[in-house]
Amino acid sequence: MEYKHFxxxxxxxxxxxxxxxxxxxxxxDKFCDKTIYACWQCNFFLHxxxxxxxxxxxxxxxxxxxLILSPYPTxxxxxxxxxxxxxxxxxxxxxxALCEVDLHVNCAxxxxxxxxxxxxxxxVLNHSSQTGGQNxxxxxxxxxxxxxxxxxxxxxxxxxxxxxxxxxxxIKMGLYQMxxxxxxxxxxxxxPMTQPAAPTAQQGQGPSDGQVQVELTPLEALAILMGLSNAxxxx
Length: 235
Description:
- The protein is an alpha+beta fold.
- The protein has a domain at 113-167.
- It is built from four helices and 14 strands.
């Protein structure tokens, strides 16, 4: 069974990663486990959730424009700084080229609430940190907490904030849905959108119903952004 992903020239096959084998995902640059998409000719691998990430989203952090999934950074430096976690990225990102907004795939789909053994209360994701600022530190790692980036905060304990990476260290990354308005399809039904690749009779079905994303050129991505903007005069 083979699938086509927009970021790679060859078809991808489904592979079950055995324990102890170390393969890195091209989408998020983290180690793979369980079911992945693989091109052994190029040693190209994608987590199931990275391969199935939708081609564009409207995120509550940047609701004025859709964020388009790019397989590589859009800057001459060949890297980007994630607006969510503040770390550099060189692989997939959800980006708005107009506003220079960039999110790692995993950061774009962070869970809205998490629990962690280091704190007795549920922690809530905030896109604008209320606790970060000068001399503020993450309550887990004790490093500086930047108010320019996202954090998880406790609604019960005053000034309890932690880095997103610290708060999610015990959970499996995936395509979590936000409670506050993450859209993965345009609200205007006439606006263009990219459909998942339909597997052929020879391909059959794979993880998540085979929803590997089809190829989209930069010009097509720009056309989508322009079409979505024109569909909403306030964008």
